[in-house]
Design brief:
Elements: H1 11-25, H2 38-49, E1 52-53, H3 59-62, H4 70-82, H5 99-105, E2 109-110, H6 125-129, E3 133-143, E4 166-175, E5 179-187, E6 201-211, E7 214-225, E8 254-257, E9 267-276, E10 280-291, E11 300-301, H7 313-318, E12 322-335, E13 338-353, E14 367-381, E15 384-393, E16 398-408, E17 412-421, E18 443-455, E19 458-469, E20 480-494, E21 497-515, E22 521-542, E23 545-557, E24 564-578, E25 581-592, E26 599-600, E27 614-615, E28 618-631, E29 634-645, E30 650-651, E31 658-659, E32 662-673
Helix pairs in contact: 1-2
Amino acid sequence: MPELGFSQVADTTQQQVEQDIERALEGLEDEDTDFNPEDLAQFLQDLAANPLNINRARVDQLSLIPGMNIRLANAVVEYRRNKPFESIDELVQVRGIGPATLERMRPYIMIGDTRELFTDLITSPGYWFGNSRVEVMSRMQTVLEEQQGYINRGDTTRTTYAGNQVRYYQRANYRSNRLSVNVTQQKVPGEQMLHPVDFEHTSFHFATFNQGPLNMLVVGDYGLFFGQGLVLWNGLAFGKGRETIRAAYRNERGLRPFQSSDRYNYNRGVAASATVADRVQLTGFFSRRELRATEVGQDSIRFPTATIFYRTPSEIERGLNTGLTFYGGRAAWQFDYGVIGATGYIAEYDDYIVKGTAVSNAFDFEGTTASTIGIDYRLFFDELLLFGEGARSKNGGLGFVSGLEYPIGMATDISFAYRNYARDFQSVFGAGFGEVSGNPRNEEGYYIGLRHAIIPGLVLSAYYDQFTFPAPRFGTNSSTSGHDWLVLLDYRHSRDLDMYLLVRSKTRGNDFRIVDDFGREFFALGDEVRGSIRGQVDYQVHPDVRFRTRFEWLRARAINADPEFGMLAFQDVRFSGINNVQIDARFTFFETESFTSRVFQFENDLLYVLSNPALFGRGSRSYLLVRYRPADFIDLWAKYGITVFQDRQTVGSGLDESIGNTRSTLGLMARVSF
């Protein structure tokens, strides 16, 4: 789990934030690698460092808290209209919030005065710089084995990387009650760095917020997270996993300053959000960015790629070879029974985009101008929450998602969602709920979720999801379908003992090629099946020592092949018995028959670094992560990890291949904050 590094939160708060990140990320597998989850980690870390005042926060702000939804947020606001909260524990008196939900929320909330502090004039330094915090961080990570792309880099007869194999990252951030200023820079392995500030990627923003009716003004880089994600959602949107009730629901974050190292999922320009007439929120945005795309002709390109690196001669030569002008707006009306919003944008590309030639590209966007408009809603009637969004792209394609959440009695919650994204729906900046990550398109399905408290501390969660792809998706030549289900039994005996048993299965149709007796090739449909059983125990054996033990067994069957099996077992320990030092260590053993039966584990890492490696073959992995705090304003991290394979003598492929059966990594990081 990712390291926190906020001194003002207790160990229990730190563990809760880690668990929230892990819950969101542990279901991600290799098909989701286009997304950078760094933004989620930063959002939760910042929220824990700057908790929301439950006596002043708006409904839209409260609904961002893990464990909270718009129904509970409205219940909190309704409760405090009669009297302000005098303690955080008083939240259990709000209908729908129990002890378990309160513990989930606790790291992100605080108690404060109900009166807005208007005594400071706008010209007063205290108005702008109150509660100031400065954070400067720098980190490096590298693979210790020499990889093929870095050998004989002066040899012009072969392709090599221009720079060394170290990843550098640095960030400087200032934040107060009214201001946010940020610069983030990154160099990935293989990119050249001629001097200390010669980073190939730089992200920046200046933002001011909480200025009366002006909620937010951002100049520079920003993200947009509206509605249920069908029209606009920059970055990773999580779906199915351990959160069975909230899986289909998007917690709208609105306009947010951008500060991660993601090179694609952001906007650059100016954006503002304001509240008018008390209940109407208006947002407008304009962005101009340079992008990278494969050139097809003199003035035509493929759709811009999310992979923007400068490592090889071809990548450097191509550079940022096209541009995008992007603008639009949103209006949201909050009333007694919820929120209704409308979002729209126009995206104008510098070059004509030509769709691909594969069967699965038949309904892709083609042209120079893309646009999408949509209407979304979040409605609550007593305990019932209804949510959804409908959208239309410029070519006439339609997309729709709708769902509900409802508690049955005090012990049971259910959710249901239906989505239908037409094969020609072209929401190029959306991320609606579905089986396939990324833009919502070419998918129909329904989702049912259940959560039931059997006895205090013992919770049963489950979901079932049925989906169909009406047109060929990537890698297929015909319509396919599948289903996915999960059952989770979670037992929390106390803060010192927590365990769960998780069973999951996914079946998805796919094409495979058959050659008959006459040598003729044709495609047939078959099912890929993947199922797993996982057991995990967390136990605090001493105030300074926490253990975690996991075992996972997996069965996977590729199309037209025999079943394969895999297993993973790990033991890790967290030790905090030395002043200002915290140590995380893990040893993992894994064995799978091939990549088809690969297994995943979510790892502790440096601040804002999220690791979910795929392990396959036979071997072991171990790591040691040390955090040292020599002073109140300084945090230091160091991580060493090594994977030893017993069934191969090379690791990786292509330019990233190294000779030998080990892959070891080293990461170092320093942060100064005051």
